[in-house]
Description:
The model has no long low-confidence stretch (mean pLDDT about 95). By secondary structure, the chain is α/β, with parallel strands linked by helices. β2, α2 and β3 (about 65-70) form a beta-alpha-beta unit. It has one domain (about 1-180): Rossmann fold (3-Layer(aba) Sandwich), CATH 3.40.50.620. The longest helix is centred in the first third of the chain and has 14 residues, at about 15-25. Strands 3-2-1-4-5-6 form a six-stranded parallel sheet, sandwiched between helices. About 40% of the residues lie in helices and about 15% in strands. The chain starts with a strand and ends with a helix. The chain contains eight helices and six strands. Bound molecules: adenosine-5'-triphosphate. Adenosine-5'-triphosphate (ATP) binds near residues 7, 16, 103, 149 and 151.
Amino acid sequence: MIGFFGGSFDPVHYGHLKNAVAIKQELGLSALFLMPCAAPVHKSELQFSTEQRLEMLNLAVQEFIDLSIDTREIDKQSASYTIDSLKQIQQDYPDDKIFFIMGADSFDNINTWKQYEQLSDYATLVVLPRAGSNQTNNEGVYFSKAPLVNISSTQIRSKIAKHQDLSGLLPDTIIHYIEQL
Ligand code: ATP
C-alpha cells in the first residue's frame, strides 16, 4: 500500500509534512510520495520556480526521512491531470494498492477535476482535515483522523512578503533556503 500526496508545495510546509507522516502511519503505507505539480505552462502563478519547489521538498525529506518525492508531474513539463498521473502510477505499481491524499479544501472542489468520477477507479481517496472545511462523509473516501494543522502556503508567502518570522511553519533548513534566495 503506497500513497501519493499531490500539491504545488509553493512552499512545502508542516501542514503537508506532518499530515503526510500521520497518514502514512494511520494507513500503514509502505511509502508516501509527495508529488509536486508542474507550473502552469504560459504564466507562472506560483511564487517559487519548479526547481526551487523541488529543492525545498528535498530539504524537507532530509528531516522527514519517512517521506519520498515523485517527480513525474514536473518531469513532464506540461500541466498534468491527477487522473492521468494515477493511471500511470497504477501501471508503475501494478501490485500495490494506491492511495491519493488531499486536503479537505481540495476535496471540496474535486468536481472541477478532470474525470473526477473515475479517480476512485485508480486510487482510494484520502481526505485530510483542513480549517474551513468540514467534510466527513462520502462513500468510498477515507477521512483521516490526523489532527488539524492550520498552516498554508498562502500564509507563508504573505509572511515572506512582510519579512515576518516563519519559524514553526516549515523546517528551518527551508527557512534558511528562502532567506538566501
Ligand atoms: P496554497 O495556500 O497556496 O493554496 P496549500 O497550503 O493549500 O497552498 P498546496 O501545495 O496547494 O498547499 O496543497 C497540496 C495539498 O495539500 C492539497 O490537497 C491541500 O489541501 C493539502 N494541504 C495543504 N496544507 C494542508 C494542511 N495544513 N492540512 C491538510 N492538508 C493540507
